[in-house]
């Protein structure tokens, strides 16, 4: 595991259950490093999950890249229904697609900020009914960092974490 991957794991650990995805992306839209809960993750199920999911022997675990998440004990969701719901295109999160699309967002935000003489972009926040997505440039703006978290996350804490790790991530990127 290289330095960039270690930093990303530290970030994921600090965020805990609110973590959804993070990527370090070149301005061309190609991710050079990242981590995410498994592809096909269902945001609707996550929103219904308890903050600290209890371990329940009777409930089959969903696996999020090495992290166990158990369905709420009172949920009436069977594994076969979870799998079917995960395949619903409207609710599936794809971090690779997100990274590529955010390249356009970052370019546009920098352009608008510059043309309107509003200063440099610190970060972008997109709020949906299910997630917060924060993005910010790293170093010389040739890379940016996208971080997606649940709506249960505290934005101030996430921003402080991003402020702390941004220079470390920039230093870990091979130049």
Please provide a brief summary of the model.
With 175 residues, the chain is α+β, with helices and mostly antiparallel strands.
Structure, described:
There is one protein chain. With 175 residues, this protein is of the alpha+beta class. It folds into two domains: 1-37 and 94-175, Dynein light chain 2a, cytoplasmic (Beta-Lactamase); 38-92, no CATH class. The chain has helices at residues 3-15, 43-48, 79-86, 95-115, 155-172; strands at residues 19-26, 31-36, 61-64, 67-70, 124-127, 131-138, 143-150. The strands form two sheets. A five-stranded antiparallel beta sheet has the order 2-1-7-6-5, sandwiched between helices. A two-stranded antiparallel ribbon has the order 3-4. α1 (3-15) packs antiparallel against α5. The longest helix has 21 residues, at 95-115. It is globular, with a radius of gyration of 17 Å. It starts with a helix and ends with a helix.
Q: Helical stretch count? A: 5
Question: Which architecture name of the largest domain does CATH use?
Answer: 2-Layer Sandwich
* Low-confidence regions: 52-91
Radius of gyration: 17 Å
Strand order in space, largest sheet: 2-1-7-6-5
Q: What percentage of the residues does DSSP assign to strands (E)?
A: 15-25%
Distance between the termini: 18 Å
Sheet with the most strands? 5 strands, antiparallel
> What is the name of the CATH topology of the largest domain?
Beta-Lactamase
**Which oligomerization state do the chains in this entry correspond to?**
single chain
Class derived from helix and strand content: alpha+beta
Number of E strands: 7
- State the helicity in percent bands: 25-40%
The CATH class designation of the largest domain is Alpha Beta
Mean pLDDT equals 76
Tell me the count of domains.
2
Q: Identify the overall geometry.
A: globular
Reading the helices and strands in chain order gives: HEEHEEHHEEEH
Question: CATH superfamily membership of the largest domain, which one?
Answer: Dynein light chain 2a, cytoplasmic
């Amino acid at each position: 595991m290289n330095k960039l991957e270690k930093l990303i794991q530290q970030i994921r650990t600090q965020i805990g259950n609110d973590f959804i995805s993070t990527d370090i992306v070149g301005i061309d839209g190609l991710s050079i490093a990242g981590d995410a809960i498994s592809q096909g993750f269902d945001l609707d199920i996550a929103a219904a999950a308890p903050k600290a999911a209890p371990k329940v022997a009777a409930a089959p675990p969903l696996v999020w890249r090495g992290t166990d998440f158990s369905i709420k004990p009172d949920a009436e969701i069977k594994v076969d229904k979870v799998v079917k719901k995960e395949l619903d295109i409207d609710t599936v999160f794809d971090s690779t697609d997100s990274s590529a699309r955010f390249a356009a967002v970052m370019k546009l935000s920098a352009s608008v900020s510059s043309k309107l003489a509003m200063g440099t972009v610190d970060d972008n926040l997109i709020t949906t009914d299910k997630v917060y997505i924060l993005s910010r440039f790293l170093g010389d703006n040739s890379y940016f960092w996208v971080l997606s978290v649940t709506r249960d996350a505290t934005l101030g804490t996430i921003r402080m974490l991003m402020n702390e790790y941004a220079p470390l991530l920039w230093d870990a990127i091979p130049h």
